[in-house]
Each structure stands twice: as C-alpha cells, then as structure tokens.
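WARN retry 2 of 3 for item q-0093 after timeout on previous attempt; input resubmitted unchanged.
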Amino acid sequence: MSDNALSMLRAIAWLPASSPALSASLLDWLLEEDSMTKRFERHCQKVTVEPQFEGFVSADDIAEELPFLPLEPRYWLREIILLGDGVPWLAGRTVVPESTLDGPEKMLSQLGTRPLGRYLFSSSTLTRDFIDPGISDALWGRRSRLRLSGKPLLLTELFLPAAPLYQSPSGEPSE
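OK item q-0093 returned
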C-alpha cells in the first residue's frame, strides 16, 4: 500500500480551487489551513505516523517540487503514511531545503514518528503561502508551501481511501 500510495502522491494532477470537480465539502478538507493531524484526531482515537523515507536528496530527486523552493544542493525529504487508529488515511511528502534546517527548524529532520502537523502548528512563526488541490487515480490530494520563520518547505498530501474525507458528503463520519 505505501509504495503505491507514494507513487500516486507523486502523480497528483493539480487543479484550480475553482474546478467544478471540487465540491464545497471536498474544499473544506483540501483547503484546511489548520493542522490536518488535528482534524484527523477528531475522527479517531489515535493518529500515528509510519515513516517510509527520511534523508537528504539532490535537486534531481525533487524535480516536481523544485519550482516552489529555492535551488540548493540538498533537500531533506520525508515520506510517511499517516494512520488513524491503525488504518492508512494519508500519504505525505515533505521537501525541506537544507537552508531551512537552521536553528530550531533543524527539528524538521528529526521528527521520526511524530506527525509534522504537531511540530508545525506549535510554532508561532508558521505561515502558509498557498494550498493547491489535486487528484490522482480518484483520490484527492493537496500541496502547500509553508514557512517557518520565513523559511520554506513544501508539503504534499494524498488522502487514502479510508480517510474521513471520503466518509460522507460533509466529510464527517456517516451515522
């Protein structure tokens, strides 16, 4: 599942938020500005992370993300599966320029099984430049450039079939 999910995440076709394919309930999830981890926690007992890959990569390895980040020799790449009560809900890919990993932001390279949202949304210096919705093989995703202390990182997320986003038109659990 994880390899397939990460392949699908890398194949997301990006859409304008005005696309007729995007209902109001989908946009409510896809354009969520707060922590997705926090939102998921309203739908389960426990959110956990299974890291799939963490390490430095070259610009060639992040060609798709490169237009949204400064050109640098190395980037920290973290690919994970986020689970709600042990069920895969989201595939995530975070690309962090090495220069962003200066000072307190060095923690981004040491998250391990800690959800990114728990770290990011505890910072008073977090800002978001944009959120792009997208689709891959009938699964919804989003891409967002965030900044910590003005330093960028790019987060791409793909909502897997069991995610609460698909549970009902409102995105809330079905009765």
